[in-house]
Structure formats: C-alpha cells, structure tokens
C-alpha cells in the first residue's frame, strides 16, 4: 500500500479547479457526502481524503476520493449551456476522469509482481482487480458466471480493449 504522501496528492483547491467549481461548493459536496450514512455517497477520511488543516477544512484527496466527487458531479450537478459547450469542445471532464482512473490503476499495479505474463497475456491478481473496481469477491464471481453463461469467450483486443504487444 502506498504511503500517505503518495496516496493523497490532490489538493482541495486543485480539485475544485479541475471540476470548475468554487472551493466553497466542494466543501458543500463533502458535507453532503457526510450527512447521510445510509446513502450511496460516502467519502472516508484516511481513504478518500486527509485533513491538512482541520480547522480551515483544508484537505488532500486520493484519486479514489476525487473520482467519487466526479461521479457525484456527473449525476447531480446541472451545468449551464456555456459549460456544456466548452466541455464538448475541450473534453475536459472526460480527461479528468480518465486521468484519475489511470492514477488509481497505476497506484495499485506499481508494486513488482502485480502483473504476471502468462502465454503472452498480461494478467493481474483478483485482489488487485477488486481494489481497482472497489467491489467484493461475490460480485466479481457473479459477473464472471454471467460472462460464462453467455457461451461467448472473450476475445483479446475486442472485448477487453487490451492488446498484447511483444
């Protein structure tokens, strides 16, 4: 597991700027996440963010925490037409989400031995996949059973989007 300095590298001001919102709005979103423990929106201290200065509500976020906030904004924020046109042209939001996802995967797979080559195919262990997808073994096994029921084997480069290069 990465140390704290490596994991919480996204400053709150930086995150607000990425999402084109004010820092105050970011604080409101975080307060909303913390308000109802029974809803699907949860940010966990020391997993998704850490306080740099608790009295000033200054935080640094992990990639996972930033991605959760991005998902919330996608689902709940209505953006004006100017923002939508600008994003359509620049693809800013998509680039941010891809960058955060790439960072999560890189953090998980950066240790030696996490990627194994078997018959020219790169493989990662089930625990790493679970951590990247933030799911549990039961849900993953159910998904694999559904894929197996389809009687259509997955094809490398077609179904996974991955290619093997020598």
Give short descriptive properties of this protein.
single chain, 166 residues, mainly alpha, 2 domains, 5 strands, globular, disordered N terminus
Characterization of the model:
With 166 residues, this protein is mostly helical. It has two domains: 4-109, no CATH class; 113-166, no CATH class. The protein has helices at 4-7, 12-18, 23-35, 63-76, 81-90, 92-109, 126-133, 137-149, and strands at 10-11, 49-53, 58-61, 115-118, 121-124. The chain has a three-stranded antiparallel beta sheet with strand order 1-3-2. A hairpin with a 2-residue loop joins β4 and β5. α4 packs antiparallel against α6. The longest helix has 18 residues, at 92-109. It is globular, with a radius of gyration of 19 Å. Residues 1-5 have low confidence and may be disordered.
How are the SSEs ordered, and which strands pair?
Layout: H1 4-7, E1 10-11, H2 12-18, H3 23-35, E2 49-53, E3 58-61, H4 63-76, H5 81-90, H6 92-109, E4 115-118, E5 121-124, H7 126-133, H8 137-149
Antiparallel strand pairs: 1-3, 2-3, 4-5
Helix pairs in contact: 4-6
Compute the number of strand runs.
5
Number of helices: 8
- Rg of Cα set: 19 Å
Please give the domain count: 2
Span of the ends, CA to CA? 29 Å
Form type: globular
Short description:
The chain has 166 residues and is mainly alpha-helical. 52% of the residues lie in helices and 11% in strands.
């Amino acid at each position: 597991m990465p140390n704290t300095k490596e994991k919480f590298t996204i400053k709150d001001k930086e995150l607000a700027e990425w999402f084109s919102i004010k820092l105050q709005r970011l604080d409101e979103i975080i307060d909303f996440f913390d308000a109802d423990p029974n809803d699907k929106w949860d940010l966990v201290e020391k997993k998704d963010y850490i306080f740099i200065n608790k009295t000033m509500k200054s935080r640094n976020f992990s990639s996972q925490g930033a991605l959760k906030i991005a998902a919330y904004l996608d689902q709940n924020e209505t953006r004006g037409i100017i923002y939508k046109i600008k994003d359509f042209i620049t693809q800013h939001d998509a680039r941010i989400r891809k960058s955060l996802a790439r960072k999560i995967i890189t953090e998980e797979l950066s240790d030696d031995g996490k990627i194994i080559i078997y018959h020219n195919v790169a493989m990662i262990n089930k625990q790493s996949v679970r951590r990247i997808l933030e799911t549990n073994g039961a849900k993953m096994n159910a998904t694999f059973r559904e894929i197996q029921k389809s009687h259509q084997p997955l094809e490398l480069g077609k179904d996974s989007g991955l290619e093997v290069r020598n």
